[in-house]
């Protein structure tokens, strides 16, 4: 069992930055690939970024590539999402996800493949 708790969301002006954190509890954090998803009002949950168990491989949605950076610290059982150059289209609830997988990340993490979800943290970008 893995519990995920996100933090770091809030209100930011367009062009600004935020850093989300996701703290994991439970055993064997390093057995999990980690991801971030987001869900805007009245829209489906969508993939944002993923990172392999070791941190060696990452993958990003085209909409955030070059602006967002996912990273992890296995010693702290924490995954991060650094978000820069934010715009109004980034406004959403952001969810941390864990998938039991120790391979290389070669594509987006599928919603259906996620084993554990956090409860989300709201990011609001004002224009």
Keywords:
seven-stranded mixed sheet; 127 residues; mainly beta; globular
Secondary structure elements and pairings:
Blueprint: E1 3-7, E2 10-13, E3 18-25, E4 32-39, E5 46-51, E6 58-60, E7 68-73, E8 78-83, E9 92-100, E10 116-117, E11 121-126
User: What is the residue-mean pLDDT, rounded to a whole number?
Assistant: 97
From the helix content, strand content and strand pairing, which structural class follows? mainly beta
Give the strand content.
Answer: over 45%
Record field, number of beta strands: 11
The total count of helices amounts to: 0
Low-pLDDT residue intervals, each spanning 5 or more residues: none
Whole-Å distance between the termini? 40 Å
Largest sheet: 7 strands, mixed
Morphology: globular
Task: Describe what is shown at a glance.
The chain has 127 residues and is mainly β.
Task: Characterise the protein shown here.
The chain has 127 residues and is an all-beta fold. The strands form 2 sheets. Strands 2, 4, 5, 6, 9, 10 and 11 form a 7-stranded mixed beta sheet that branches. The protein has no helices and 11 strands. It starts with a strand and ends with a strand.
């Amino acid at each position: 069992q893995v519990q995920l708790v996100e933090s770091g969301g809030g209100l930011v002006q367009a062009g600004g930055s935020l850093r989300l954190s996701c703290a994991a509890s439970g055993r064997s954090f390093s057995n999990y690939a980690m991801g971030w998803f987001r869900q805007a009002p009245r829209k489906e949950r969508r993939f944002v970024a993923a990172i392999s168990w070791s941190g060696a491989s990452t993958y990003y949605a085209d909409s955030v590539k070059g602006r967002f950076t996912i990273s992890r610290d296995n010693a702290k059982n924490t995954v991060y999402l650094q978000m820069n150059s934010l715009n109004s289209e980034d406004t959403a609830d952001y969810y941390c996800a864990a998938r039991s997988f120790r391979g290389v990340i070669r594509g987006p993490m599928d919603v259906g493949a996620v084993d554990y979800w956090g409860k989300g943290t709201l990011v609001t970008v004002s224009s």
